[in-house]
Amino acid sequence: MENLSSKLFKTNFVDTFPGDESGDLHPRQTPGVLYSKALPTPVHKPELVGWSTELADSLGIAAPNPDDIQILGGNLVTPTMRPYAACYAGHQFGNWAGQLGDGRAITLGEWQHPTGNTWELQLKGAGPTAYSRRADGRAVLRSSVREYLMSEAMHYLGVPTTRALALVTTGDKVARDMFYDGRPADEPGAIVMRAAPSFLRFGNFEMLASRNEIENLTQLVNYTIDNFYPHIEGDIEFEDKVIRWFGEVVDRTATMVVEWLRVGFVHGVMNTDNMSVLGLTIDYGPYSFLDNYDPDFTPNTTDLPGKRYAFGQQANIAYWNLNRLANALVPLISDTDKLKSQLKSYEDAYWLKYYAMMANKLGLDGINDDEDVKLVAEFERILTAIQPDMTIFYQLLIDLPTEIATEQDVLRHFMSSLYDDPTSEDATQLYTILKTYQSRLSANNCTREDSLLRMRKANPRFILRNYLLHMAIEELQKGENKLFLELQQPLKDPYSSNHDEFFKKR
Known about the structure:
The chain is α+β, with helices and mostly antiparallel strands. It has helices spanning about 10-15, 55-60, 65-70, 140-155, 200-210, 215-230, 240-265, 315-330, 335-360, 370-385, 390-400, 405-415, 425-440, 450-460, 465-475, 480-485, 490, and strands spanning about 35, 45-50, 85, 90, 95-100, 105-110, 120-125, 140, 165-175, 185-195, 265, 290.
């Protein structure tokens, strides 16, 4: 175990690529480089609020000492760190936005894991960079708590995600217009240390392609394959490597989205600059879990007119984003039909993973025929109609008696998941679907115990609901951390019934 302050950091990314080493933090275009040097801006009084002991232990990072806390606050940079902000672009809400980059994230360097793998350690909220545009590069406690807790919650749910190592308050105030009504107010400042094998995004590749920086684009693809997809290496042509790599990005992206749907997660801002080439959930902004089951739900008020990033649109948007990544790779490929073929594989990969996931949620031995596909569709349709609490509904489905005599039996069983009384027609259809479902369960090629085990592993009992986040944030803003600390336990144990004090709908 080593401390952040004594570790010899790796600097593979900045050693590999051209960058702007001027340290100039004025917002500007930076053609020809993949990063710009960005030293964190010191804060008044960094204090540790959260520390992910399990993540730290897995990376070989010792509990923070006073110097480490200064690093977490951006007040100390050790000699082997080379802090930088990455340059990337992206499509936002379907439109090309041009250069974006890390506006409030600063990578300190790469921490070498005891196994030899490296993880990128990044401060979010540590001050301005060349890509901050008109912003201050800071983060408030409210958004930082949300990112810290949700990063870890998603990990323990089994969803591919970046991680959060630490959360510190800064002792400074940050002006934010929380309700976008033209009345900014001071809020407590905070910084999150994020961790991932890499924060590379679709937008890193889009930026280079848009600028026709083909040499840099080629180098970035090689770097990504060498470091994060080494099994693709071998005696094969570069173009074939690119095709195989893109195919794996397609597959990982499908996996990520299906996992979101399994737990009812809505990202809210699926711009291409928020899409990881490692298939990780990245950039936790206006996210939410579903309360009532509503495919049209979006937590992002900016997205409300068109609901582009609504829960039920996420699979389609992932495909759209993969199209943008494919376009960025076209300059490297002579036979674009191979690229198109990998892109088309998304649909098959997605549905294969989706039906496997739904089989587990329903406790089935598989989605084996058209009747099973129809049953899944009927479940989705009735859930959309009655809009129960998604998490609680599936927990009650696990406990559904093997014999249900009447519609009233069904309504009584699922009552605690309902926000509104269903219509008589919907109640009848729910009863009919459940009778069909029970008949299908009886035909399973697995035991009832195996079926229940699948359901318990696929359906979380605890999710980090918005009202819990809101309460924890309000307490922390008052200097209290009781709920923040209490949430750490169910967050790490979301499939058990050991924390049912939090098993409550909105």
